[in-house]
Q: What sequence folds into this?
Protein backbone atom coordinates (compact mmCIF):
# COMPACT_ATOMS: atom_id res chain seq x y z
CA UNK A 1 0.00 0.00 0.00
CA UNK A 2 2.77 2.60 0.73
CA UNK A 3 4.13 2.02 -2.79
CA UNK A 4 0.75 2.96 -4.24
CA UNK A 5 0.70 6.19 -2.23
CA UNK A 6 4.19 7.13 -3.41
CA UNK A 7 3.23 6.37 -7.01
CA UNK A 8 0.16 8.58 -6.76
CA UNK A 9 2.16 11.40 -5.22
CA UNK A 10 4.71 11.25 -8.03
CA UNK A 11 1.97 11.23 -10.65
CA UNK A 12 0.38 14.29 -9.05
CA UNK A 13 3.59 16.31 -8.86
CA UNK A 14 5.46 15.38 -12.05
CA UNK A 15 4.56 17.09 -15.29
CA UNK A 16 6.45 16.77 -18.53
CA UNK A 17 5.97 17.16 -22.27
CA UNK A 18 7.82 16.16 -25.40
CA UNK A 19 8.12 18.44 -28.41
CA UNK A 20 7.08 16.78 -31.68
CA UNK A 21 9.76 14.44 -33.09
CA UNK A 22 12.38 15.36 -30.50
CA UNK A 23 14.62 13.46 -28.09
CA UNK A 24 14.06 15.97 -25.29
CA UNK A 25 11.65 16.04 -22.38
CA UNK A 26 10.58 19.33 -20.75
CA UNK A 27 9.79 18.88 -17.03
CA UNK A 28 8.41 21.61 -14.77
CA UNK A 29 10.09 22.27 -11.42
CA UNK A 30 7.53 23.83 -9.09
CA UNK A 31 9.99 24.55 -6.27
CA UNK A 32 12.58 26.31 -8.44
CA UNK A 33 10.05 27.93 -10.84
CA UNK A 34 11.77 26.51 -13.91
CA UNK A 35 11.70 23.85 -16.62
CA UNK A 36 14.43 21.24 -16.95
CA UNK A 37 15.24 19.98 -20.44
CA UNK A 38 16.24 16.33 -20.39
CA UNK A 39 17.98 14.52 -23.24
CA UNK A 40 15.99 11.29 -23.43
CA UNK A 41 18.83 9.37 -25.10
CA UNK A 42 21.51 10.28 -22.54
CA UNK A 43 19.05 10.72 -19.63
CA UNK A 44 20.80 13.95 -18.64
CA UNK A 45 19.60 17.47 -17.93
CA UNK A 46 20.86 19.57 -20.84
CA UNK A 47 19.26 22.89 -19.96
CA UNK A 48 17.07 24.87 -17.58
CA UNK A 49 14.58 27.61 -18.41
CA UNK A 50 13.69 30.07 -15.62
CA UNK A 51 9.94 30.76 -15.56
CA UNK A 52 9.54 33.29 -12.75
CA UNK A 53 7.58 32.96 -9.54
CA UNK A 54 4.10 31.47 -9.45
CA UNK A 55 4.56 27.67 -9.16
CA UNK A 56 4.64 26.51 -12.79
CA UNK A 57 3.10 23.06 -12.93
CA UNK A 58 1.51 21.44 -15.98
CA UNK A 59 3.17 21.76 -19.38
CA UNK A 60 2.02 20.82 -22.88
CA UNK A 61 3.48 21.33 -26.36
CA UNK A 62 1.59 22.66 -29.34
CA UNK A 63 1.33 19.82 -31.89
CA UNK A 64 3.97 21.52 -34.10
CA UNK A 65 6.51 21.23 -31.25
CA UNK A 66 7.65 24.87 -31.42
CA UNK A 67 5.95 26.27 -28.32
CA UNK A 68 5.23 24.79 -24.90
CA UNK A 69 2.48 26.19 -22.67
CA UNK A 70 2.70 26.15 -18.88
CA UNK A 71 0.05 26.65 -16.18
CA UNK A 72 1.12 28.48 -13.00
CA UNK A 73 -0.78 27.12 -9.98
CA UNK A 74 -0.11 29.94 -7.53
CA UNK A 75 -0.16 33.07 -9.72
CA UNK A 76 -2.92 31.77 -12.05
CA UNK A 77 -0.92 32.61 -15.17
CA UNK A 78 -0.26 30.91 -18.48
CA UNK A 79 3.31 30.93 -19.79
CA UNK A 80 4.60 30.31 -23.32
CA UNK A 81 8.05 28.79 -23.92
CA UNK A 82 9.91 28.94 -27.23
CA UNK A 83 11.39 25.42 -27.35
CA UNK A 84 14.15 26.22 -29.85
CA UNK A 85 15.28 29.43 -28.10
CA UNK A 86 14.79 27.74 -24.71
CA UNK A 87 13.20 30.77 -23.10
CA UNK A 88 9.92 32.05 -21.72
CA UNK A 89 8.50 34.40 -24.36
CA UNK A 90 5.14 35.34 -22.86
CA UNK A 91 3.23 35.20 -19.62
CA UNK A 92 -0.46 36.04 -19.37
CA UNK A 93 -2.66 36.45 -16.29
CA UNK A 94 -5.74 34.31 -16.92
CA UNK A 95 -7.30 34.32 -13.45
CA UNK A 96 -9.45 31.59 -12.04
CA UNK A 97 -7.63 28.51 -10.83
CA UNK A 98 -6.04 26.94 -13.92
CA UNK A 99 -4.97 23.37 -13.27
CA UNK A 100 -4.39 21.49 -16.50
CA UNK A 101 -4.22 22.16 -20.22
CA UNK A 102 -4.36 20.39 -23.57
CA UNK A 103 -4.53 21.24 -27.25
CA UNK A 104 -7.32 20.11 -29.50
CA UNK A 105 -6.05 17.49 -32.00
CA UNK A 106 -5.92 20.07 -34.81
CA UNK A 107 -3.86 22.46 -32.63
CA UNK A 108 -6.26 25.37 -33.16
CA UNK A 109 -7.40 25.68 -29.54
CA UNK A 110 -5.72 25.40 -26.15
CA UNK A 111 -8.11 24.10 -23.50
CA UNK A 112 -7.40 25.14 -19.90
CA UNK A 113 -9.07 23.27 -17.05
CA UNK A 114 -10.14 25.56 -14.21
A:
Amino acid sequence: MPTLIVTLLLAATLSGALPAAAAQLFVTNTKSDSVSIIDTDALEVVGTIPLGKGKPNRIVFHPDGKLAWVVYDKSHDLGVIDAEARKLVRRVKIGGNPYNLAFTPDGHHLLVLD
Notes: The radius of gyration is 14 Å.
